[in-house]
Amino acid sequence: MYWPKLNTQKIKLKIFEALSKNANYRSENILGLPGTFLDTEVFYDGEPFLKDAPFLSTLIANPNHIGCHTLETDHEEIFNGTQEIEKDLIRICAEEICKAERHEYDGYVASGGTEANIEALWIYRNFFQQEKSARLHEIAFVYSQDTHYSIPKAANLLGIESLVFNVHENTREVDIVDLENKLNDALFYGKKYFVLVLNLSTTMFGSVDDIGKITSLFKLRQVNYKIHVDAAFGGFIYPFTNADNAYTFLNQDICSISLDGHKMMQAPYGTGVFLIRKNYMKYVCTEEAAYVPGMDYTLCGSRSGANAICLWMIIHAHGSVGWTVKMNELLQKTNEVCKALDAMGVKYYHNPFVNIIAIKSRYITKDLAKQFYLVLDTHEGEPKWYKIVMMPHVKQEVIDDFLLQLGESVKTI
Ligand SMILES: Cc1ncc(COP(=O)(O)O)c(C=O)c1O
Known about the structure:
Blueprint: H1 8-21, H2 54-61, H3 80-97, E1 105-110, H4 113-132, E2 139-144, H5 150-158, E3 161-165, H6 176-188, E4 193-199, H7 211-220, E5 224-231, H8 238-241, E6 254-260, E7 272-277, H9 305-344, E8 348-349, E9 356-360, H10 366-371, E10 375-376, E11 385-389, H11 396-411
Parallel strand pairs: 2-3, 2-4, 4-5, 5-6
Antiparallel strand pairs: 1-7, 6-7, 8-9, 9-11, 10-11
Helix pairs in contact: 1-2, 1-3, 2-9, 3-9, 4-5, 6-7, 9-11
Pyridoxal-5'-phosphate (PLP) binds next to helix 4.
């Protein structure tokens, strides 16, 4: 995995050069587009600091990145400059982080993990309908009880039933007997096509689904399935803390992956990344988007080019080496908290490559949870777990304070 670290000057040059290749609403004869630069009452143009602020300048110039630019179809040439930067970002995510073969993928910057996940499931539903003449009731989305709610949301939107399998309480690993029973029932009741959503880290636990164990059941029965990896949480950490991981395009079973730039990458909200193998985007081509050169293949339609620019800038400000160091530092801090919890005898769940710790709720008082904004597993009834997420803003003194107070309250249990 490699991409270079660039200094601020080089990053600035690259983005301003890209912007200069876009059509400019201020200086060109743009009559036909329903878009323009940001309102000058609120966003002043020509402020001296803007010449050193490529992201803000892009935000103000307001290029529309509508569509999917890795496809070989016609494009909205008017914003070609910054769309090329997005293509380079997608290349790094697909080829360097997710190990896709050169040019063997498509992708775009989505509004977030939710959109990227829905896009994937929309593609597979249509794939099974178009290629296998599947009927809606013959398709099922398969995922664990710990899966992010964007997946049931997608199931609801797309009119597809879910097969939700249990995980073991303490290890968060697939309950394979439960999955096997549910799969047998689904087959018995006429399901023929399965879309498996596997977590490259769940939101609450940081747990990672065992791809081999889960797919072996489907392989054994020789049923049709497609795999989407939800790496919205783990996608920008796990490949850097566990280089030899099984959740890349090297695994021929994996067809698409979603990542989120607005978590550990510290990009602004609106920076999801959707990646899929070549020749799948066509299943969601909205041909009615006749006025968009190259049609639309995305869920969102118009989207700001500034988000893609920002993620490209962050990625290059660190370089692959710097990012690996940064993610391993987060992991190191997480591991130190785990050691302290062990010493106190506090029970928790932690995947060794992820910066989340889910602590059994019996050790956490409501006051402590409130004071440190700990997130609980459910607001319905009594929570069983509280989680800590070791994000870049978490200072050592906050961790120390938390552990001190936890230590005091554990003594009274
Ligand atoms: C595993 C997982 N998938 C999907 C999402 C949804 O991402 P977003 O909120 O960016 O839409 C999240 C968000 O926390 C997540 O953790």
